[in-house]
Amino acid sequence: MNTPLVFNTIPLEEIAVGMSVSYSQTITDTDIKAFAGISGDRNPVHLDEIYAEHSRYKKRIAHGLMTASFFSALFGTKLPGEGCVYVSQSLNFKRPVYIGDTVSATVEVTKVDISKKRVFFKTICKVKNKIVTDGVAELFVP
């Protein structure tokens, strides 16, 4: 048997409009510093308490793309699962995310195009039931 075993994958033919998965994570100082290191975004509004105190947010905020990265985690590990690849993602950043906030990311299937092997999603991150990031995504499923 030369067929590779792929776990955490839902076959394209079994993906249906309305299917959704979620992931939650509480944002820490360590998360923000690690994301700054990985992304190269060392904006002081993310890293410097004194700078952030004088900003419109009054305290340090997480990188917007950190919340968006939770969508990628869901796509690659849950729905559609391993092997899928982003085609596109639109993002709207509606509210800041602070250290200690628990972000709940949800992706929901809105359309499936079997002939093109594409799945379309509504993407939403919430903190305390308020939307902080939303958008739409298109994924290629092998």
SSE order and pairing:
Blueprint (H helix, E strand, L loop, with lengths): L19 E7 L2 H11 L4 H4 L1 H5 L10 H14 L7 E5 L2 E2 L8 E12 L4 E10 L2 E11 L2
Antiparallel strand pairs: 1-4, 2-6, 3-6, 4-5, 5-6
Give a quick summary of the entry:
24% of the residues lie in helices and 33% in strands. It is built from 4 helices and 6 strands; from the N terminus they run βααααβββββ. The protein has one domain: Thiol Ester Dehydrase, Chain A (Roll), CATH 3.10.129.
Structure, explained:
The protein is of the alpha+beta class and 142 residues long. It has one domain: Roll (Thiol Ester Dehydrase, Chain A). It has four helices and six strands. It has helices at residues 29-39, 44-47, 49-53, 64-77; strands at 20-26, 85-89, 92-93, 102-113, 118-127, 130-140. Strand 4 and strand 5 (118-127) form a beta hairpin. The protein is elongated. The two termini are 20 Å apart.
Keywords:
single chain; 142 residues; six-stranded antiparallel beta sheet; disordered N terminus; alpha+beta; Thiol Ester Dehydrase, Chain A
Number of strands: 6
- Give the quaternary arrangement of the chains: single chain
| Biggest sheet descriptor | 6 strands, antiparallel
| Termini gap | 20 Å
CATH topology: Thiol Ester Dehydrase, Chain A
Morphology call: elongated
At the fourth level of CATH, the homologous superfamily is Hotdog Thioesterase
SSE class:
alpha+beta
What is the number of helices?
A: 4
CATH architecture tag: Roll
Order of helices and strands: EHHHHEEEEE
The overall pLDDT, averaged over residues, is 94
> Measured on Cα atoms, how large is the radius of gyration?
17 Å
CATH class: Alpha Beta
